[in-house]
Design brief:
The chain contains 17 helices and twelve strands. By secondary structure, it is an alpha/beta fold. The longest helix is centred in the middle third of the chain and has 21 residues.
Length: 484
């Protein structure tokens, strides 16, 4: 790796980096030196649970506009075991013991240290960026290694690991209710009707027909019916979370059953980010802005709320060219149990499930009474841990892992300085993030009406004034810190 490679302006720089942590393997990174001025800062984007994509570092997204204004060099580092950075050659449970956020932090530190030394960037100020889980890594990098990183920006970054993340659906209710109370009421009524119909065999054929359920769906299987309900919940929740400014098809993804992945930062640039799949399965993913969703759910000419929900499902299927609604739990387990690596189109579901089962949780249950859904108990989310990875991965081990995560990183008890926390008010994940200033050097940027990682993406004519102002506020804070 030469210095010239690291400051090229072609935006095609990609290299392989041998990590020096617990296992030896390849770490992939991208580089953009188009805006770099000698002595300028170095921006390092920490990838979360997705494949690193060249477009994230070559399109005019927010951090690149900052780089242009500040003369920064930009680097994007892929997370171990995701994308093409596969240190062991497979995704077996034995291999995944080397997958953790702590291992990822060690990789970030090793990468930063070696690149700085090799490329003559030891005197430059390094700023670490990230969104969602990648944002958590960015924040933790600054907290744990303030000598290596001058500042950090964590967008929609969860700071607290939580086994039972019931607050997520409370956030969905709050956002839907803020936008349109009648829409929230209709969603609850439609969902309740589906739940009741699932209890009576006389409605099975109707449900099968209305929702175009695949033939392998088993009405007498608690796990199949719960999986079906979960997918209907996600149909609502993911659109609330992202609060897209327009209806947008975001791409093709062959990886299936990635419903637990919280890392959506690549969604609008990669032709899909797998994390928040409206109706996962093979095919395109579609997000619908809340306004469009609620227009349908409150349209009485379409029939009862049940039929309005069916209408939305059919519309999504039409956009994604799906022939049927797949809610086969055994099929889901089979997909997640596959430990091979698809080098042509890497998947993320198995890896993120492992991290969820060992250090984060983040399971979106319906345990709270302050949300519109039912039927998704914690046991439903914990069961795949043992089904996929073995009986030693259970509730007790999960609880211990989550406690260890919060003790190691501090949870909401953030210590340090020069870290910016940004969150959108419509994003249900903000309840696990920092939404109020901790101190002058630990500011929060809470964006009214914004979704998950909204401020990370390129500015559009339809962006709200609050979103535009938030991007500028983050820039000016960074600019001030870099001058100090």
């Amino acid at each position: 790796m030469s210095t010239e490679d690291n400051v090229n302006t072609s935006q095609k720089g990609i290299g392989i980096y041998n990590v020096g942590s617990n296992v030896v393997g390849n770490k992939r990174y991208f580089i953009n030196g188009a805006f770099y001025k000698p002595g300028g800062p170095v921006f390092l984007m920490t990838e979360g649970s997705d494949t690193a994509n060249r477009k994230w570092i070559s399109m005019n997204n927010t951090w690149l506009t900052y780089a242009e204004r500040l003369g920064a060099l930009c680097l994007l580092l892929e997370h171990r075991f995701y994308g093409h950075s596969q240190p062991t050659g497979d995704l077996s449970t034995a291999s995944l013991r080397y997958l953790s956020s702590r291992q990822a932090l060690a990789d970030i530190v090793n990468f930063r240290t070696k690149v700085a030394k090799t490329a003559g960037l030891t005197r430059n100020k390094w700023v670490v960026f990230g969104g969602s889980y990648g944002g958590s890594l960015a924040v933790w990098s600054r907290i744990k290694h303030p000598d290596l990183f001058a500042a950090a920006v964590g967008s929609s970054a969860p700071m607290l690991a939580k086994v039972n993340f019931y607050e997520y659906l409370e956030g969905v209710q709050n956002s839907l209710g803020t936008h349109n109370k009648e829409c929230l009421k209709a969603v609850k009524e439609a969902y309740d009707q589906v739940v009741e119909m699932l209890k009576l065999p006389k409605y099975y054929s109707k449900l099968e027909s209305d929702f175009m359920l695949c033939k392998n769906f088993k009405f007498n299987s608690v796990m199949d019916t719960t999986f079906f309900l979960e997918r209907l919940v996600l149909l609502v929740a993911t659109n609330v979370q992202h609060n897209m400014d327009k209806k947008k098809k975001v791409g093709i993804l062959r990886s299936t059953f990635k419903d637990t992945d919280p890392d959506p930062q690549r969604g609008q640039i990669k032709l899909r980010f797998g994390g928040f799949y409206v109706l996962y399965g093979e095919g395109n993913q579609v997000f619908i802005r809340i306004e469009d969703f609620c227009d349908i759910m409150t349209n009485t000419s379409l029939g009862s709320p049940y039929y309005r929900l069916v209408r939305i499902v059919h519309s999504v299927f039409k956009e994604t060219f799906s022939l049927s609604f797949n809610a086969d739990y055994d099929g889901k387990m089979k997909a997640l149990s596959d430990s091979s690596i698809n080098h042509h189109m890497p998947t993320q579901g198995r890896q993120w499930l492992y991290q969820s089962c060992t250090e984060f949780g983040f399971f979106k249950t319906t345990d709270s009474k302050n949300q519109p859904f039912t039927g998704l108990p914690l046991s439903y989310f914990v069961k795949p841990c043992s089904d996929v990875f073995g009986p030693e991965f259970n509730y007790d081990s999960l609880k211990t892992g989550v406690m260890s995560t919060n003790m190691y990183y501090g949870g909401f008890n953030v210590r340090g300085s020069k870290i910016i926390f940004s969150n959108g008010s419509f994003d249900p994940w903000h309840t696990l993030g920092i939404t109020k200033d901790i101190s002058k050097d630990l500011p929060a940027v809470f964006i009214k009406g914004a979704g998950h990682c909204s401020e990370m993406f390129r500015q559009k004519a339809t962006d709200s004034a609050e979103l535009i102002q938030a991007r500028e506020k983050i820039f000016h804070i960074l600019q001030k810190w870099l001058k100090e």
